[in-house]
Design goal:
The chain is α/β, with parallel strands linked by helices. It has helices at residues 7-15, 19-26, 33-40, 45-54, 67-70, 76-87, 98-107, 114-123, 131-140, 146-155, and strands at residues 2-5, 29-32, 58-61, 91-94, 111-112.
Length: 158
Amino acid sequence: MKLISNTSPLILLFEADLEFVLRELYGEIIIPEEVLSEILISPKVDKLSNQIESCDWIKKVKIEMEASVLNWDLGKGESAVLSYALQNPNSLSLLDDRLGKKCAGILGIDVIGTGGLLVFAKRQGIIKEIRTPLEKLKRAGLWITNDIIQLILHRAGE
């Protein structure tokens, strides 16, 4: 299954030094040009864009937007990720945006959030525990409630 990433999870995983999880779980990940352009306007642009550009396991793609996604008025990155997923049914979308996840559910698109990605990584033996990576993600800027943290920890058996 191919993983296509939205902007926020990608930025957060790189900032928290957890990008290896993506590479080890999926080998190659896909990012739309719209996601790359959102990264380039990030305040951390130099460090992040250099890191992403040097990753041979990140494939940048051009996406034709789907009307059924555009009707949701999501951000450019979310719209591109979900449009790609509609055009490539054997893909998994990595995004944390609540409205984007709702759109994906209605359109029948498989989605995983950053927390779910960590749970999967633990189950695959890529990371040993979830609490420390979650704290790193919070320090990197992940907005997450304590209730969601507890849910993620529970799903990970912690």
